[in-house]
Write a structure and sequence with these properties.
The complex is a heterodimer. Chain A contains six helices and nine strands; from the N terminus they run E-H-E-E-H-E-E-H-E-E-H-E-E-H-H. By secondary structure, chain A is of the alpha+beta class. Chain A has two domains: 77 residues, ACT domain (Alpha-Beta Plaits, 2-Layer Sandwich); 73 residues, ACT-like. Chain A, domain 2 (Alpha-Beta Plaits, 2-Layer Sandwich). In chain A, helix 3 packs antiparallel against helix 4. Chain B is 38% helix and 16% strand. By secondary structure, chain B is of the alpha/beta class. The C terminus of chain B is likely disordered. Classes of the chains: A alpha+beta, B alpha/beta. The interface between A and B is medium-sized, with 19 and 19 residues.
């Protein structure tokens, strides 16, 4: 099954390679990866999406915890969480004249933004969960996608879930 | 006053109490060796190959429990220690490896003797660091030793570019280490320990299963106390040998692929396993699906990744083995002070184990013409009176040493378990001998393994390291030949080594005397002469080349499905036995 793993690490060279190595050494593919500094510039958050057997993912998480520069590991799949991805999609609009209008209509429905425009292309920005991003891509495909880039998913736990899991909070 | 990186390096080693390092110089580490050359506190042992340096550092560490140190140059110097790093990583050996690196301005430019040292060593080190600023050097070295020695020990690599050795910085060695992401758990969870104690007192067929973690944690006394308090029989992994006296009535010796019949049967029928610093390796468990089917498992280990990795633990306890056992023994003492009563309770279990032991003890057919390898080890054990340190290589001789060299004290049985590195034994013995110059150190090896690092004979002579080389010479890669006999119809694909070289003449070239035994009657005198000689010596035992090592759990078999002797059809398979008939002197085909 799919796992979204958040890994808080020290912001140093070599750390990402060690983290990624734990996946590759087991023949596990990283479906998506995102890394950026946190509020504290000395630490970074790595978000990895991987698909694998629960037992092996549990072992990878234990191994991740052992890496000296890893500060915290969370498997967000185990709790209620939000995940988002951004994609930039460059489409061709010169095949048929009505494609430019169609593109704008699709963007409206998805609340996507056109962030760059040329006489023959639009570049569209979309942020959302995977289903939304993929739905948009599928609708734009017939128009002709020239280039596509996705950030990979980032994820955060939902506070509501944390509160709800405390019995006294439920009563209130 | 500011110091150069090289001076900081040497001062830091002194602060860590390092008295010896093993290594070979080269272009980028000249400055380090130059500073080392001008002082006396840290001795440099120049080896003949970097792999030798790495295994010597391991041998030193396994014998003392303190991190061994090696220092090699960039590129090929570093790639030559990779086997040592991987070996140390698998067997949790504390080790700090310093590697030279090309100057920071050249890194990544395919400079002469450049290799990506941290990249290459990443999957086989506990931690590794490239030092990019001389101001970080002292702190990095402090952290390297701390990480190597604490928690589950392991190798740490520090990569030092050439310009860092000459750059200058103020030297201040840090008093303590602060690593946010590294805090090994030492104390066990009290509730879990209490649960474990209850299970232990309830169990009718319990077994204590001890691994190498017990040795690095110094837990031999605690294990002895637990076993005697509870009267639970103890079995050890290859790496755990020495953690419990092999001659103790509760000892069942080694378990696993070539372990004792009774220990494997006890494991299979146990209702409770108390795993102590062990990791349920496949050579121990055999077929996982049939492993100890009814046992509940208490698993004590400092490394959470070892727990529930292969076998489910009903009561996992993360912590330092010694600390946890101390906590556990306090409870056990209060629960049941009466050892006799406990003995009574476990009597049927003890009797059962005794029955298994009587049915299938370690056995071999003594012969008056050909030397049996087991006989050599038995004699050696007898004649050394349980003194000294044994280092082994890998293969049949290693298993026979584990089976017949009983009664070991902690850290006196040094072997390559996890990685199974042939060529480990001799340099490791030299490292152990350097740590304990006055102890008797023996390297039990075979001609196949020995030839993988025999260049270190020179190191033994030059540094006056009187290691006794006990060679079980069968002219084959013996374990490979055994598998070929059993599973490949006796086709000896690339496993015949022949009678080359003449090891006595080889020794002579290095100024090392040797003795050869060609028949059983020679064995005793060769051992006597070899042990008597003050200095390194070679004992060349020309053993029966087709002896197979039993009992054996065949690969993929379950622990209770041991093969106890050569199957009756072995002779018909056109393998070794036929050749043996042609030459009944025990002399090998060339």
């Amino acid at each position: 099954m799919e796992h979204i793993i958040s890994i808080l690490v020290e912001n140093k060279f070599g750390v990402l390679a060690r983290v990624a190595g734990l996946f590759s050494a087991r023949g596990y593919n990283i479906e998506s990866l995102s890394v950026a500094p946190t509020l504290d510039p000395e630490t970074s958050m790595i978000t990895i999406v991987t698909i694998g057997d629960d037992k092996i993912v549990e072992q990878i998480i234990k191994q991740l915890n052992k890496v000296v520069e890893v500060l915290k590991v969370t498997d967000l799949t185990e709790t209620s969480h939000l995940d988002r991805e951004t994609a930039l999609i460059k489409i061709n609009t010169n095949a048929k004249p009505e494609h430019r209008d169609e593109a704008i209509r699709i963007c409206d429905i998805f609340r996507a933004k056109i962030v760059d425009s040329s006489p023959t292309t639009y570049t569209i920005e979309i942020t959302g969960d995977v289903e939304k991003v993929e739905a948009l891509i599928n609708l734009l495909k017939p128009l002709g996608i020239k280039e596509l880039i996705r950030t990979g998913r980032i994820a955060i736990s939902r506070e509501v879930a944390k509160v709800a899991s405390r019995p006294q909070a439920v009563k209130a | 006053m500011k110091k150069s990186g090289a001076e900081i390096f040497v001062e830091s080693l002194k602060q860590e109490g390092v008295d010896v390092l093993f290594g070979i110089p080269g272009g980028v580490v000249l400055k380090l060796f130059d500073v080392l050359h001008q002082q006396k506190d840290v001795e440099v042992i120049l080896t003949r190959h970097e792999q030798g340096a790495a295994h010597m550092a391991e041998g030193y560490a396994k014998a003392t429990g303190r991190a061994g140190v090696c220092l090699v140059t960039s590129g090929p110097g570093m790639t030559n220690i990779v086997t040592g790093l991987a070996d140390a990583y698998m067997d949790s050996v504390p080790m700090v490896a310093f590697t030279g690196q090309v100057s920071t301005s050249l890194i990544g430019n395919d400079a002469f003797q450049e290799a990506d040292n941290v990249g290459i060593s990443r999957p086989c080190t506990k931690h590794n660091v490239l030092v990019k600023d001389v101001n970080d050097l002292a702190r990095t070295i402090k952290e390297a030793f701390y990480i190597a020695n604490t928690g589950r020990p392991g190798p740490v690599l520090v990569d030092i570019p050439k310009d860092i050795t000459t750059d200058k910085a103020e030297f201040k060695y840090p008093d303590k280490v602060s690593l946010r992401g590294y805090n090994p758990t030492y104390e066990g969870n009290k509730y879990q320990i209490k649960q474990a104690a209850e299970e232990i007192m309830k169990a009718k067929k319990p077994v204590i299963y001890v691994g190498g973690g017990a040795l690095f944690s110094d837990a031999a006394d605690e294990i002895l106390e637990m076993a005697e308090l509870t009267q639970i029989p103890v079995t050890m992994t290859l790496m755990g040998l020495g953690s419990f006296p092999g001659t103790h009535p509760l000892s069942m010796g080694m378990l696993g692929m070539h372990g004792s019949y009774w220990s494997n049967m006890a494991m299979h029928h146990a209702d409770l396993l108390i795993a102590v610093g062990a990791r349920f390796d496949d050579r121990v468990t055999g077929k996982l699906a049939d492993f100890s089917p009814v046992a509940r498992v208490v698993h004590i280990d400092i490394d959470p990744t070892s727990i529930k990795k292969n076998v489910h633990a009903h009561i996992p306890i993360v912590g330092d083995v010694r600390t946890v056992l101390k906590q556990l023994n306090i409870i056990l003492r209060s629960l049941d002070g009466n050892v006799n009563e406990r003995k009574q309770q476990l009597k049927p279990w003890h009797n059962q184990i005794e029955e298994w032991k009587k049915a299938h003890p370690f056995k071999y057919q003594q012969d008056d013409k050909a030397i049996k390898p087991q006989y050599v080890i038995e004699k050696l054990f007898e004649m050394t009176h349980n003194e000294g340190i044994v280092a082994t290589d890998v293969g049949q001789h290693q298993m026979w040493a584990a089976q017949y060299f009983k009664g070991k004290k902690p850290r006196t049985f040094i072997t390559s378990g996890g990685l199974g590195t042939m060529g480990f034994g001799f340099p490791a013995a030299l490292g152990a001998q350097r740590a304990y110059p006055d102890e008797l150190v023996m390297c039990i090896t075979s001609e196949g393994s020995f030839q993988m690092n025999l260049q270190e004979l020179a190191t033994a002579v030059i540094y006056k390291l009187p290691v006794k080389i006990v060679m079980l010479n069968n002219g084959h890669h013996g374990m490979v030949r055994q598998w070929q006999d059993l599973f490949y119809e006796g086709r000896y694909a690339s496993s015949v080594l022949g009678k080359i070289p003449d090891f006595l003449k080889l020794g002579e070239a290095y100024g090392i005397p040797g003795w050869r035994a060609e028949k059983p009657a020679d064995v005793e005198s060769v051992i006597r002469e070899g042990l008597k000689y003050k200095g390194p010596a070679i004992m060349d035992f020309q053993i029966y080349p087709f002896e197979n090592c039993y009992p054996m759990i065949p690969a993929g078999g379950a622990q209770h499905e041991m093969v106890l002797e050569d199957p009756p059809d072995l002779k018909t398979k056109g393998g070794g036995s036929k050749k043996m008939e042609a030459d009944d002197e025990g002399v090998l085909p060339a």
